[in-house]
Amino acid sequence: MMGSSPPKGRPISAFFSFPWCRRHILTTGLSVVALSVTADIASNASSSPLSSADVLHFMKLSLCLTDRKTLDPVLGKALFSKLTDNNPKRRTQLDQLLALFNPQTWDNANHFVKEAVKENPDAPPLIRDILHGWYRGIVDNKVVVYRSAMMFSLTRNILYPKTYANGDLFYWTTRPPEVPLPKAQPAMQPDVPETLGQ
Predict the structure, then answer these.
(1) What are the domain boundaries of the chain?
(2) DSSP characters for 125-181?
(3) Do the beta carbons of residue 139 and residue 82 sit within 8 Å?
(4) CA 54/CA 7 separation, integer angstroms
(5) Closest CA to 150 of 129, 133, 174, 172
(6) Please, are residues 100 and 111 in contact by the beta-carbon 8 Å criterion?
(7) Given CB 3.0 to 4.6 Å as the disulfide criterion, which of 65, 84, 138, 159 pairs with 155?
(8) CA torsion, ordered 127, 47, 73, 172, to nearest 10 deg
(9) CB 54 within 8 A of CB 120
(10) Cβ atoms of residues 30 and 23 within 8 Å
């Protein structure tokens, strides 16, 4: 039976053999990762859940600011969550912005933004964050969405990537069409040297 201390006459480095250290480090690392993931899930679960009314008001505000008739509600919920997640100050500012927006109908985004800035001079950074979320898909320097960001949808079929392949944006992510193999014989035989393979 192995004791907890190394036998007499053997160096302590022999007791802590290299394979045992690797397994120990790996197990410890996995335990730390599991604890951090559990803590992250617990913190997200403990935060206040998003109500459908808040998301709906945010979508209406976003439609006004972007001057669009339709926006993706799934993306809107993700942006709203990322904007307000662990940021009580921004959530308070957003609630104030929504309180100003909801009671009346606005002619356009410029009309609303002028009134919002007049009501609260600290509103422009929040409005900029909302627009960056929709157009660039980025909130707090973290990517929320990439392919569905409005900067791509607005230029689709107009601007093409700077490349020799004249495909649409993200054409490389779709499966290419099936092309049947040619059945006809070539018009010319390939010019193969007679010494090839000798």
Answers:
(1) 52-153
(2) HHHHHHHHHHHH-EETTEES-STT-HHHHTTTTT---SSSS-PPTTGGGSPPPP-PP
(3) yes
(4) 67
(5) 133
(6) no
(7) 159
(8) 90
(9) no
(10) no
Q: How many residues does the chain have?
A: 198
- CA–CA dist 34, 102 (Å, integer): 43
> Within 13 Å and on the Cβ side, how many CA atoms surround 62?
25
Distance CA 48, CA 43 (A): 10
Average pLDDT for consecutive 10-residue bins of the chain (198 residues)? 52 49 56 48 46 87 90 91 88 89 85 89 91 92 87 73 64 78 77 70
CA-CA-CA-CA dihedral for 76, 82, 88, 91, to nearest 10: -20
Tokens in use for 192? 């193969």
As given in the structure block, the two tokens for residue 43 are 């913190």
pTM above 0.70, yes or no: no
Element (H, E) at 59: helix 52-66
